[in-house]
Amino acid sequence: MKKNFKIIIEYDGTKFFGWQRQKDKKTVQGEIEKVLSKILNQKIEISGSGRTDTGVHAFGQVANFHADTGILPPDLKKGVNSLIKHPIVIRKCCIVDDDFHARYNAVSKEYQYFILNREDPCAIDRLYQWHIRHPLDMEAMSQCCQAITGIFDFKSFENTGSPRSSTIREVFFSNISHLGNSRLVFKICAKGFLKYMVRNLISTIVLTGLNKITPHEFNKILEAKDRTKAGPTAPAHGLFLKKVNYS
Known about the structure:
alpha+beta
């Protein structure tokens, strides 16, 4: 009898072509499916809570899959982690109700974007944060975070090619704060996100931090519903899928 397994996954996205399975390209979904299919001796296809783009990382991506097996979740978790040859770790594995779906049952997702704000770059963590040399105005950036909390049309912050019926999204919370050692983190939680939405938002928020635009001008960009008005897409390597929430 088939069981429905839920897994929580951490991965370094640096050398992956994103989450979604692609022919002849190394992806997170594809690598996990290969290992699971080998362990379970059957073809396994996993459903993720959503896609992460090339170079984006995750602390808590969620996926589920159905398999006919007597292997217990803790043993399956250990098996995948021992066999996978890439920076992917299964953090949790459990059996859930048969109708659970990692994508369709998600109520919100939380992302974090890390910035190193100092003159000198970083030798060790350079693949996991955006280096910005000039001092940033935290008050201006915080005003922008407040401005996007709520229900808005985020078309100005969407790249083309996104499968969606609407560009309206609800942001449950958004803030930016100091972590110490010249590091900042931008946090945002929403029901769903448009393509590159988080990276386009933070890049434009950073423009206010650099005093290149004002918070008022940021609001005008939001209202414009025009991608050409917003800032360039921020680097992928600073972005992490932090958590997927379920009811």
